[in-house]
């Protein structure tokens, strides 16, 4: 049985939108998948048959301080889910709630993987050749140091192996030019370190090849990754505004991705955008199901 | 008379492609515009009537060290053009040649504007509302410190006033979220400084609003700006590969922009991509003409 944990109170429009997304996801779940819903008493009656509802007395609000929330709200939906994940009562946990709180809870309750000092957020983007490129970090490590890129490479490689089924993932460093000498101080040093010790490292990749490369894992700091993620959203919005239609463009819609995995912690945690709509929540749940089934070497 | 300097030896496919671009530009030049062509003896006979050919004995190759090139090749096409610009013999100078050499020559021969410590490269992008957004820096200052963002704001504002005809340009800081507390250490500090002292500063802008905002000037470090520039190229290439058609997409084609101005130096210098084709060169020349006519307060 696959046991998926869902934070009913997670998201700007929770709980209503989470229920709507859940309804969309239910018919598509695999037989043998059990949802474990972490919600408040008011919503308990809405829990679908054949799944489990975990009654919680608290919820973390968007403006709260993550560390304080973790200390003071032990019975919050988000915390309870992470605790159950740590105790192996569920196989993965997904929330569109407070990303900082989810990050801190994941680090403190699940703990970090060996050799990892900071978790990362991974985002998948479509390539025009039909493949996908995993980009990390896309949000947490905005001041990443060169040494952290080795952790990004390790986490990206294990992700590509487990989720993209790449035995020998091709790894590249996002940079301003193909030459080793390109980029900022941090990126130049990161290039040296990656070249020295990372198997499958193919050098720098320029953003002009973003959709066109055959790279499986693209490494960048969390600031740059966040810009790339959001500029892609801007392209998608633009294409809709212009009335452009193509199957590939649908693959750029973040609602189709639903959520991004947090990697580097000892458990499978899935983070969705706060303003997620029902379709994004649906895909978050299906993503949490598929990642629960994935076999990570390092987690 | 408007006197435009052109580096005949600038670009990966020079001089042939420069001549081709020049031929495309000639019919569109304003009456009263004089081209000043800096080229080698072999090409002198190709100079069109009514324009001036400056015979040079050297050319700077792509792999050369910028500072050495400046010291050892005083008679190179690129250097001679910048010297003539400094001596007010021409009103603007454009090259698709060695960007580092053009930057160093501009700084050393033209000198920096008052209050400016480093030049920047500006790039214009279309907005869906029909306007344009000037992004800087897009390439030079890959390790920008927070204080430099004040220079970016000054140079961006004067550019928007002169070229986009914005009396009170709206200025924003590219960042990972709208809140002041978002971003890396440098961006948080840059936000504080901009808020304190820059008129027209409207706060952070997320990349998801890149094409959709009403911002005139977007500030970022040269690393991030380069990524944005090139990811837009990737999106343009993608749209062509998918067979998408829309007038707006043509505006994303960098060949239609042709070149980017270097700002912060005492003179109007225009830099095109090394691999520019004839159409990009044509637009570089027309851009150099229009910038020669622009009235910059600070230059």
Description:
Two copies of one chain form a homodimer. The first copy, chain A, contains ten helices and eleven strands. By secondary structure, chain A is α/β, with parallel strands linked by helices. Chain A has two domains: 1-111 and 265-299, 3-Layer(aba) Sandwich (Isopropylmalate Dehydrogenase), CATH 3.40.718.10; 120-256, Isopropylmalate Dehydrogenase (3-Layer(aba) Sandwich), CATH 3.40.718. The longest helix of chain A has 20 residues, at 222-241. Chain A is globular. In chain A, strands 3-2-1-4-11-10-5-6-9-7-8 form an eleven-stranded mixed β-sheet, with helices on both faces. The interface between A and B is large, with 41 and 41 residues.
Order of helices and strands of chain A: EHEEHHEHEEHEHEEHHHEEH
Judging from the principal axes of the Cα atoms, what is the shape of chain A?
A: globular
Q: How big is the Rg of chain A?
A: 19 Å
Instruction: Give a quick account of the main beta sheet of chain A: strands, pairing sense, barrel closure.
Output: 11 strands, mixed
Indicate the percent of residues in helices of chain A: 25-40%
Q: What share of residues are in beta strands of chain A?
A: 15-25%
User: Could you say which structural class the secondary elements and strand pairing of chain A correspond to?
Assistant: alpha/beta
Q: Oligomeric status of the shown chains?
A: homodimer
Any guess at the CATH architecture of the largest domain in chain A?
3-Layer(aba) Sandwich
Beta-strand segment tally of chain A:
11
């Amino acid at each position: 049985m696959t046991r998926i944990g869902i934070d009913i109170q997670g998201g700007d429009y929770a709980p209503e939108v989470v229920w709507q997304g859940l309804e969309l996801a239910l018919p598509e779940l695999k037989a043998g998948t059990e949802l474990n819903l972490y919600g408040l008493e008011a919503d308990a009656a809405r829990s679908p048959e054949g799944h489990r509802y975990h009654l919680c007395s608290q919820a973390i609000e968007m403006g709260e301080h993550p560390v304080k929330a973790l200390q003071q709200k032990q019975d919050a939906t988000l915390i309870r889910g992470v605790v159950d994940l740590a105790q192996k009562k569920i196989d993965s946990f997904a929330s569109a709630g407070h990303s900082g709180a989810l990050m801190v809870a994941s680090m403190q309750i699940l703990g970090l993987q060996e050799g990892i000092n900071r978790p990362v957020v991974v985002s998948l983007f479509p390539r025009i050749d039909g493949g996908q490129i995993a980009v990390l970090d896309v949000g947490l490590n905005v001041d990443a140091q060169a040494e952290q890129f080795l952790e990004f490479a390790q986490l990206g490689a294990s992700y590509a192996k487990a989720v993209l089924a790449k035995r020998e993932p091709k790894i590249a460093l996002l940079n301003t030019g193909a030459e080793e000498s390109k980029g900022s101080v941090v990126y130049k040093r990161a290039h040296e370190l990656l070249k020295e010790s990372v198997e499958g490292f193919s050098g720098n990749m320029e953003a002009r090849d973003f959709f066109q490369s055959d790279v499986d894992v693209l490494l960048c700091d969390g600031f740059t990754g966040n810009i790339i993620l959001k500029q892609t959203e801007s392209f998608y919005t633009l294409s809709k505004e212009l009335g452009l239609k193509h199957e590939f463009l649908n693959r750029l819609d973040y609602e189709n991705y639903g959520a991004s995995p947090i990697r580097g912690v000892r458990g499978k945690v899935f983070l969705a955008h706060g303003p997620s709509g029902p379709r994004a929540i649906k895909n978050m749940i299906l993503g949490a199901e598929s990642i629960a089934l994935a076999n990570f070497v390092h987690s």
